[in-house]
Design brief:
This protein is of the alpha+beta class. 22% of the residues lie in helices and 34% in strands. It has a four-stranded antiparallel beta sheet with strand order 3-2-1-4, covered by helices on one side. The radius of gyration is 11 Å and the shape is globular.
Length: 67
């Protein structure tokens, strides 16, 4: 399964990411590498829970990951 991931730079430093196809699925990391590790765990957790719709930001990146 491939998913698009939007990566944001956090105002306080580090990064956070959301998965638009899984509303409410988000995570954070101090470094980009930490964020990539955390996003896999977040996706697994979010697939078993129904949550709300994510918001937009001007400092965003879109990634595609396979899980």
């Amino acid at each position: 399964m491939k998913l698009k991931v939007i990566v944001h730079e956090a105002e306080e430093g580090g990064f956070w990411a959301e998965v638009p196809s899984i509303p409410g699925c988000a995570t954070q990391g101090e470094t980009f590498e930490d964020l990539l590790e955390n996003i896999y765990e977040a996706v697994e957790g979010c697939l078993s829970v129904e949550v709300g719709i994510p918001s937009d930001s001007n400092h965003s990146r879109i990634l595609e990951i396979a899980v």
